[in-house]
Amino acid sequence: MDQVKDEFDLVVCRHEGGASYMAQAYGRMTGKPGLCMVTRGPGACNALIGVSTAAQESTPMILIIGHVTTSTAGRFPFQEIDPQAVYGSVAKWVGV
């Protein structure tokens, strides 16, 4: 990330849904992937609307979701979600 940090404009948003729409709009207008980073759980769910729109319009977009530690994954820690289950039907690729 240090090598490419000057290529990104950081925009802080008040809601993950708005942030994902901004990333989707950037991708649609420029043809380059829009990048959005959100927190796990509710943040990831709120961002789903922008990712779904990007999928429907074939817009390049990357969403990075914060996740729980490996040692607590699958043990229902605070605000854990299963990204594959939530995003698997709308995203081209989901990795954990």
Automatic annotation (TrEMBL):
Domain Thiamine pyrophosphate enzyme N-terminal TPP-binding as annotated: residue spans: 6-85
Pfam family name, one: TPP_enzyme_N
GO cellular component: acetolactate synthase complex
GO BP annotations listed: isoleucine biosynthetic process; L-valine biosynthetic process
InterPro entries found in the cross-reference section: THDP-binding, Thiamin_PyroP_enz_TPP-bd_dom, TPP_enz
An example molecular function term from Gene Ontology annotations: flavin adenine dinucleotide binding
Annotated family: Belongs to the TPP enzyme family.
Protein name as annotated: Thiamine pyrophosphate enzyme N-terminal TPP-binding domain-containing protein
Organism: marine metagenome
